[in-house]
Write a structure and sequence with these properties.
This protein is an alpha/beta fold. It has one domain: TIM Barrel (Alpha-Beta Barrel). The model has no long low-confidence stretch (mean pLDDT about 95).
């Protein structure tokens, strides 16, 4: 599909949105709350984050974590040991996921954020990440993956290098490679993969359906294998929410029996993917630096 990538591995980045448990946008509120609750909860997120870090460390895998600022503040207050573990890891890249999981577009809230307010949100979130993690974020994923012109413009003004919110289907014109966002030429887009399985049904790099028991591990293994052949040199982001390892999308405790356990399913997926030849595991930012490096350097 992409002759430019012939002979190169398919890069794979595990990316996680660190945000409140089973979060939902609500009408009349800019911020998100947890499903079935009046406010946001974080217990499942923190439990899931520990499980995710265990799995990454056991397999020496890097990852990119997109932090909601409010969640990071709660982590610092409630589980300092887990924050220290995150800070000490040399294999983690840290990006931003808003401050309170804002519905920037106002699609559900009915309160779209203008340029000044959008930039204020990014500035506040950036301060939280810089203080808690020791470095300002350079990557961003929009809550609900909803970009707005005001948001992309504010990302440029705040000095972000890339966004990872857009979902696209690979084609002859796009082989999972970085590209400049229309209207924001200073910002790279590392798009998420949206594809079709062998039955022609939609599947994406997000593991949502896997954790909800709607797809088997094999479907995602096949997705990686097919993209390895079609999009060599590109970046596949395997995306997830840590809370989804512990609770379902409606906030109920996840099943704990065998393969119905989301954490077990993720472990099986990782083990299977590690056995596929021609993959290179990386972070989103490290891939961008390598992909945009001039030839010969």
């Amino acid at each position: 599909m992409d002759s430019e990538g012939v002979g190169k591995p398919l890069s794979v980045a595990f990316t996680a949105d660190i945000d409140p448990d089973a979060n939902r946008a609500r009408a009349g509120r800019v911020d998100a709350v947890s499903a079935g609750a009046r406010e946001a909860g974080f217990d499942a997120c923190f439990r899931g984050l520990r499980l995710l870090l265990d799995l990454l460390e056991e397999n020496s895998l890097p990852a990119t974590l997109f932090w909601e600022g409010r969640t990071l503040e709660q982590l610092a207050r409630r589980q300092a040991d887990l924050l220290a573990r995150v800070r000490q890891s040399e294999s983690l890249e840290h990006g931003c996921h808003g401050y309170r999981h804002e519905d920037f577009a106002g699609q559900v809230s009915g309160i779209p954020l203008g340029r000044a307010r959008t930039r204020a949100v990014l500035a506040r979130a950036g301060e939280v990440l810089g203080s808690a993690l020791g470095a300002a974020p350079v990557g961003f994923r929009a809550p609900y993956c909803r970009l707005t012109p005001e948001l992309t413009g504010a990302l440029v003004e705040e000095g972000y290098a890339y966004d990872a919110s857009v979902a696209r289907e690979p084609s002859a014109a796009w082989g999972l490679r970085p590209y400049r966002l229309e209207g924001a030429p200073a910002l790279w887009e590392l798009a998420l993969c949206r594809s079709k399985d062998r039955q022609g049904k939609a599947i994406s790099g997000y593991l949502w359906q896997l954790f909800e028991g709607r797809r088997p591990v094999e479907d995602y293994v096949e997705l990686v294998g097919s993209l390895r052949q079609e999009c060599a040199g590109g970046l596949l982001q395997v995306a997830l929410h840590p809370w989804h390892l512990v609770v379902s999308e409606d906030g109920r405790p996840a099943a704990s029996d065998g393969t119905a356990n989301p954490a077990d399913r993720l472990r099986q997926f990782v083990e299977r993917v590690l056995g596929i030849d021609g993959l290179a595991f990386t972070t989103a930012g490290a891939y961008l630096q390598e992909a945009c490096r001039p030839e010969g350097q």
